[in-house]
Amino acid sequence: MSRIFITGSSEGLGLMAGRLLSEQGHKVVLHARNTARAQDARHALPGADVVIGDVSTIAGARSVAEQANAHGRFDAVIHNVDVGYQEPRRIETGDGLPQVFATNVLAPYILTVLMMRPERLIYLSSGLHRSTTAQLEDVFWRKRSWDGTAAYSETKLYDTMLAFAIARRWPDVFSNALEPGWVPTKMGGAAAPDDINQAHLTQVWLAVGDDARVTGQYFYHRQRLAPNPQAEDTNLQDRLISVCEESTQLALAN
Predict the structure, then answer these.
(1) pTM of the model
(2) Rounded-to-integer distance, Cα 64 and Cα 107, Å
(3) Of 82, 37, 56, 38, whose CA–CA distance to 188 is shortest?
């Protein structure tokens, strides 16, 4: 039996992954943004523990990491939390950062730094990460005119870069990224064409599969897929880590 923590798992793909892992006999701890969503998660997966906190803020993400650590070391952490596919305007958090970057990139970074190091780390990306380029000189969209889809796509590139940077820096951890496909979730919309029944299987496999003990790879439906080449650029990876360190005042251990 493995112990798995899944962020952003009160509904959608995170909850689907948690339910399947639980059915397989693993111990799952879910995460919800607030108490109402936590109640929904407990109803959807009876018996599951739920960590509560809004990871869009640095303090909230730190709190979630502290609560997760209170459960002990996990075998795998699935970084599923995600917002902002088409945010019509630049929404700032209390830290003065774009909500989409704070939630999609800084939250996984903070949890990676502060949680007891698991054996496996899984970061959810998106096929949209191939349609963009790293914009680390204006990562917070302070100079550019806001484009919600572009901002989201950039964060998915950064999530992939983060997964690969961890794989390079922590050789004792299996760290990978994946895209679940464009599926009909609340974010994806009802017209999304991909298979919802496949969308959660890769993260489950990477979390517990005996044949998934690989690192620094990108997957789609359990098949290796070439990522945006920029994701594998170690200089860009290090620049992203520097941005995250400066933004959070938390250093990633080598």
Answers:
(1) 0.95
(2) 9
(3) 82
Considering the candidates 123, 156, 158, 218, report the single residue annotated as catalytic. Answer: 156
Rg of the chain over CA atoms, in angstroms?
A: 16
Instruction: Show Cβ contacts of residue 252 under 8 Å, excluding neighbours closer than 6 positions.
Output: 109, 112, 113, 165, 166, 169, 241, 244, 245
Catalytic, 27? Answer no
Task: Tell me whether residue 156 is one of the annotated catalytic residues.
Answer: yes
Q: Are 124 and 80 spatial neighbours (Cβ–Cβ below 8 Å)?
A: yes
Positions in the chain whose pLDDT score sits under 50: none
In the prediction, which pLDDT does 126 show?
96
Provide CB contacts within 8 A for 194, sequence distance 6+.
180, 181, 182, 183
pLDDT, residue 87, reads 86
- The model's pLDDT over 78-125, given as tens digits with 9 standing for 90+, comes to 999 999 877 899 999 999 999 999 999 999 999 999 999 999 999 999
Residue 52 CA to residue 178 CA, distance in Å, equals 25
Strands 3-6 and 76-79: parallel
80 and 203 in contact (C-beta within 8 Å)?
yes
Active-site residue among 85, 152, 158, 218? Answer: 152
What is the structure's pLDDT at 188? 58
DSSP state of 81: -
Q: Is 14 within 8 Å of 6 (Cβ atoms)?
A: yes
Element (H, E) at 219: strand 218-220
